[in-house]
Design brief:
This is Amino acid/amide ABC transporter substrate-binding protein, HAAT family. By secondary structure, the protein is an alpha/beta fold. The protein is 43% helix and 18% strand. It has 2 domains: 211 residues, 3-Layer(aba) Sandwich (Rossmann fold), CATH 3.40.50.2300; 154 residues, Response regulator (Rossmann fold, 3-Layer(aba) Sandwich).
Amino acid sequence: MRIRMASLLAGALVASTLAACSSSGGDSETGPIRIGLTVPLTGNYQALGTGDQQGAQIAVEQINADGGIDGRKIELVIKDDKTQPDQSVLAFNAHKNEGAVAVIGSSFSNSALAAIPLAERASMPYLSLAAADQQVDPVRKFAFQIPARSSTYAEQTLKYLQATKITKIALAHDTKSSYAVAGYDAVKEKASQYGVTVVVDRTFDTGTQDFSAVFAPVRTSGAQALFFWATGPPAVIATKQFAASGLSIPLILTGAQGTPLFSKPAGAAADKVVLSTSIGVIGKDLPAGDLKQAVDKLAGDYQKKYGTYPPQFAADGYCGVIVLAEAIRKAGSTDGKKVQAALEKLSLLTPNGRYEYSADDHSGLSTDNIAIARITGGAFVPTTWMTEQLTTNLPK
């Protein structure tokens, strides 16, 4: 009986292996092109991953409706990394074994950083939806970034501070977030170049529920603004507590809050918050032209499907798909090395602005592609300074 059971198990294993081989045809040059998408659909970063998934699915629907990539439809396979780096690793391996030609993921920087070494070993393009600089600095051959780097958000915000004559800031960041740490490091490194001095420097972690220890020293510091780096629930909690703290200086947040999934739970406390975000988030206020057309192509379908204007993360997921699709088209192949080479030569205008990758730059977006917005009545609108910038520095 044991011999028969062992024989049956061996046969099942062979059949399973053959099925896996036959189903991993995404890297052949015929049939559907299988693309893996790994995003946090549960856990602390669920708000980010949900938008990513929605935007990516719209991009796939648009491309497939237009005939696909050289006649081949895209098959998007979605996996939840649960806001956990180890789950991101498992998801990457599953995508690879199931025949994905590339992986788009994760909007949680820690998860993306865990998967990138696997992509390098597999020679498989990995287009990250996270912003931490460490993913692409130093350059890793197969890792490319879709959102701007944390340091790019930081630098555009410093330009805004300089232009609005804010010279002293309080700075706070989540020590458990690679995204926040990279942004914090960039502010510390570049602040003096823009005439900005950090007069208060505080830390917290993702589980913090009481931010009074962050706000207390700001009160007597002479800081003219609080620049706050966080993602997920801490940003909502801190924004509400900041509004109740009696502090009257501006609260400045980052692209991680460029979504109604932040502004709605934060409610009235988010009014007048300033944040750096992808340029597509202020798409309604962009001047007519190619960039607005690119944003409207996403926004029209997104609003029909979800009833709201697309948040930053939907734009990221959407751009991840269209950037990868364009690279596959230009490569004329789904071979990982050929797609990687095409990505390094890619120039593409998208709802996030113009991507200009190169062998030395796998982030692709400059500060001109970052908007400085203000939340007003739950809506994201350009600041006065940003409106002026759009007349001279609009991505084309």
